[in-house]
Amino acid sequence: MAPRRAAVLRGEDDGRSLREHLIATAEHLIADRGTAGLTVRAIAREAGVADGVLYNHFADKEELLANALYRYVRSVERGLGPLPEPGVGTVEAGLRVHLAYGLALHRAILPAFTGLLAQPVVLARFAELRDHGEHWRDKLLGYLRAERESGRLAADAQVDAAAAMLVGVCHETVLSALLPSGTASGAPAVESVVTAVLNGIS
């Protein structure tokens, strides 16, 4: 006989488990309220379960938050659409899309990460959930390396440095406004950043 579903999930048609329900609830809270001050009690109340139920499905609060953060980031990434394929269009157009994607991604997810700076265990477990190559910066670097290999960039193009510069623009633009006493520096135009990078590697 199949086990009875938790009362909070009875009548639901998606067939998800209580563990999945808790992760989805925490993900929703992260998207709606951020991570600062997010407690087990708040997650449990939103999920419609007793506080202690979480510990039947997770080793600790950190495991739940790491999984919810991972799902939140993946959800944001899906909403940003596809990244350009190497060899399609111009390299300049491809980098513009990559940089616009990176800026939008960082604006959406960095506030959630800053709310967890005092919880390094959560961030470490989040990092363990992500596969190599899954990060936007890995995809950007892969794109630049492929364009170099195809001859559309110079054979000695310093693509690792170029990728670091583009990622740095995203970090500086968002973090300058998030950190204490920070002021928004204003992102340089995507076109001007891409032009500056390409002048060094094309």
UniProtKB/TrEMBL annotation:
<dbReference type="InterPro" id="IPR050109">
    <property type="entry name" value="HTH-type_TetR-like_transc_reg"/>
</dbReference>
<keyword id="KW-0238">DNA-binding</keyword>
<dbReference type="InterPro" id="IPR036271">
    <property type="entry name" value="Tet_transcr_reg_TetR-rel_C_sf"/>
</dbReference>
<dbReference type="InterPro" id="IPR001647">
    <property type="entry name" value="HTH_TetR"/>
</dbReference>
<dbReference type="Pfam" id="PF00440">
    <property type="entry name" value="TetR_N"/>
</dbReference>
<keyword id="KW-0804">Transcription</keyword>
<dbReference type="InterPro" id="IPR009057">
    <property type="entry name" value="Homeodomain-like_sf"/>
</dbReference>
<dbReference type="GO" id="GO:0003700">
    <property type="term" value="F:DNA-binding transcription factor activity"/>
</dbReference>
<dbReference type="GO" id="GO:0000976">
    <property type="term" value="F:transcription cis-regulatory region binding"/>
</dbReference>
<keyword id="KW-0805">Transcription regulation</keyword>
<protein>
    <submittedName>
        <fullName>HTH-type transcriptional repressor KstR2</fullName>
    </submittedName>
</protein>
